[in-house]
Amino acid sequence: MNDTPPLQIAIVGAASCTGDEELTAEEVGRQIAQAGAVLICGGRGGVMEAACRGATGAGGIAVGILPGGMEEANPFCTVTIPTGLGIARNAVVVSAAGAVIAVGGAYGTLSEIAMALKLGCPVFGIQTWKIPGVVACMDAGEAVARAVSTAGRDTGNVPKSGESQ
Fold first, then answer.
1. How far is it, in rounded angstroms, from Cα 44 to Cα 41?
2. Are the beta carbons of 46 and 74 closer than 8 angstroms?
3. What pTM does this model have?
4. First and final CA of the chain: distance in angstroms?
5. Which CATH number applies to 8-151?
6. What is the dihedral of CA 146, 136, 16, 110, to 10 degrees?
7. Four-point Cα dihedral 128, 67, 29, 113, nearest 10
8. I want to staple 50 with a disulfide (CB 3.0 to 4.6 A). Which of 17, 22, 33, 83 is the partner?
9. Contact, 48 vs 41, CB < 8 A?
10. pLDDT in tens, 120-145
11. Are 107 and 95 in contact (CB under 8 A)?
12. What's the per-residue H, E or C state across 24-88?
């Protein structure tokens, strides 16, 4: 039995995305699964659904942390966690990951990027917000390779009891 838990890598992006973003997200999901990592996402459509489709298609695990109930989950989530938290679930998505990959996105994606950076979690972006702290990547391969290489490090992205961020 392996005592080391698998890496957990989040993908964040919009529930409505372009065709290019969808293809990129699906490839990110596939490569995360092939790396033996668990995909964490918001569990809904668009970038999230495409990434889950890629991960499960490659035999991986796709965890959807939903803003509301189970009915919101895309059909490719292998594990669903309904939170009832609305957009506050974005904090749960990034807190559950050792690294975050952002694909495209709007303000919800920006909030996830900001939370991840605030928590000290590395963020790798593909055609997303160009802000300090986000490492721009050319494609899925580069983003996943960088995320996998950093996700296992202790980034300190979850505050210890009694700490504030």
1. 8
2. no
3. 0.92
4. 36
5. 3.40.50.450
6. 100
7. 30
8. 22
9. yes
10. 999 999 999 999 999 999 999 999 99
11. no
12. HHHHHHHHHHHCCCEEEECCCCCHHHHHHHHHHHCCCCEEEEECCCHHHCCCCCCEEEECCCHHH
